[in-house]
Amino acid sequence: MKAEQTVLEVSAAEITDHILEDLQKLSTYSGEPMAAVYADNLLREMHLLRDKYMDNPLTEVVIALHDALFFQNRWIDYTAYQYLQAYNLLSSLAYQETINNSSVEEAILALENNGFNILPFGVQLDLNQVSDKAGE
User: Looking at beta carbons, which pairs linking 116-125 to residues 24 or more positions away fall under 8 Å?
Assistant: First the structure.
């Protein structure tokens, strides 16, 4: 008798549901030690979505939120209200029939407007140093 293994692929919708669940829990436990558990779960689900569904437009928004939350553990600094705003934004985007580029851009800008630093990897450019090197 031959044993067969069935592998079930996790859908983007299932991963998104887990992300939304963790965001909701983070809004509830923000500022408490228990929040670390949900932040860890959220990080893992975000990575899973990125790894399996990189071409999904929702993934771009999730990764923008990921960068804001997990660069230098900034998830600790965000408030319950901000997590609730992120939850509302992602849930409304996830339930759209189609997500176009405009929706993605608007969602990422909405995260920024809600206080999430979506570009935490910015580089400070010293213009004086650049002009000094150009004059040499």
Answer: 116/64, 116/65, 116/68, 116/69, 116/78, 116/82, 116/86, 117/68, 117/71, 117/74, 118/64, 118/65, 118/67, 118/68, 119/67, 120/67, 120/68, 120/71, 120/72, 120/74, 121/67, 121/71
Tokens matching residue 59: 């993934």
Query: Average of pLDDT values for 113-136?
Result: 70
pTM (predicted TM-score)? 0.81
Beta carbons within 10 angstroms of residue 119's beta carbon: 12
Cα 59 from Cα 13, distance rounded (Å): 11
pLDDT score, position 125: 58
**Rg, Å, the chain Cα set:** 19
How far lies 102's CA from each of 25, 43, 61, 95, 116, in Å?
29, 26, 12, 16, 19
Q: Of the candidates 41, 38, 86, which has an alpha carbon nearest to the alpha carbon of residue 64?
A: 86
**Over 50: is that where the pLDDT of 3 sits?**
yes
Local structure of residue 100 (DSSP, 8 states): -
